[in-house]
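This follows on from our talk about sequence and fold. I would like you to pick a protein and set down its sequence and fold. Go ahead and set the record down below:
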Amino acid sequence: MGIRLPDDTMPSASNHTNGQRKLEHLHIASNHEVEPEGVTTGMEEYQFIHQALPELDLAAIDLSTELFGKRLNAPLVISSMVGGIEPARQINRNLAQAARALGVAMGLGSQRCVIDRPETASTYEVRDIAPGILLFANLGAVQLNYGYGISECRRAVEIAGADALILHLNPLQEALQPEGNTNFAGLLAKIERVCRELPVPVIVKEVGSGISDNVARRLAEAGVSGIDVAGSGGTSWSEVERHRTQTEMANNIAASFASWGIPTAQSIVMARRGAPEATIIASGGIRTGLDVAKSIALGADAAGIAAPMLKAAAVSTEAVMSALQEVIEGLRLAMFCTGAANIGELKGSPLLKRRVEMV
C-alpha cells in the first residue's frame, strides 16, 4: 500500500512551499519506481566465507550494541524520512512504536517545516509513545547558509526531544529542484560551529550519493560524531526530482544522474578510512539482514533502512515490526553462519571477501 495523492491534486513544482514539496516527495517515493535499474549498493560484490562449524547456539547470539550512549537490541536505525505534513503524523508514530518495541533507533524527517511553521510540530511528536528510543533530530546542513544557526539546531533537538542531530547533505537533490537551495559554500565551518556549541552529538548524513573518504575526514576533523553514508543503490533522489520536473531539459538532466553516487558498500569503506574514530551508519539500499551483516563487517557500527519501513508504516505499526523482525532474524542467521557471537566479532570480520578474491 502506498501513500497516494490524486494526480489531479498534486501541487506543481512552481507552487513550492516546503510542505507541498514534502507531499510530492512522499507521493513519488511511495508510488513510483525510484530505484534505477542496474544501480546497486555494491553489496553483491561481497560474500561471507561460510562456517560449517560455527560453534554457536543460534538462540544465544547477541545482536545488541551501543550507539551514541544508548543500548540497542540490534544495530538498526529507521532512517529519516518524513515530517511536516499530515500523512507524516501517523507514519512517524507507527515507526516510533515499532522502534520502541524492538529496541532500535529512529531518525525524524527534515524539521525545516517545524522551524518555519511551528504548527506542524505534532507531525514529528513521538516521545510520548517512545520515550526511551535513540532518536535523531534532522535539518538540512545547507540551511545554515540560509538563515539557520545554532538556535534553529537547538530548537530542532528540543522539539523532538532528540538524543542527537542529523545535518543532511543533499547537493545533487537541491541542484535538481526548481526551488532548491544551492549555496553550499563555507558549510564546513558552520557545521564545525554546530558541533562545538550543540549539547548533543552531530551526525552528518548524505541522502543517496554517499560520503567519500576525504569528506569523512574533513567532517571528523570538524567535530562530527557520526557519519551516515547513505550511498547509492537505494532510492535515487535524482529520480524523485525527475518526476517533479516541468521541462524536457530538466527531465533529461535528472535522468542522466540516476546512477550518480558512491555505492553504499564502497562508501562504508571510504568513510571508515577517512574517519576511523567516528560512528559510521550504513544506509542507502540496505534491505536485508545480510546487507546489515555485510555493512558491519565492512566497518559500519549500525545500518539504516528507509524505503521498506516507509511502505510498512503506511499500513500499521505491526507491519513495521514485521519488516524489522525480518531484517533482525536475517542478521542473526548471517552471524550464526559466520561464527560471530556478537556485533563486536562481526565488525571487520575477515570472513567477508570480495567475490573476485574467492576465485
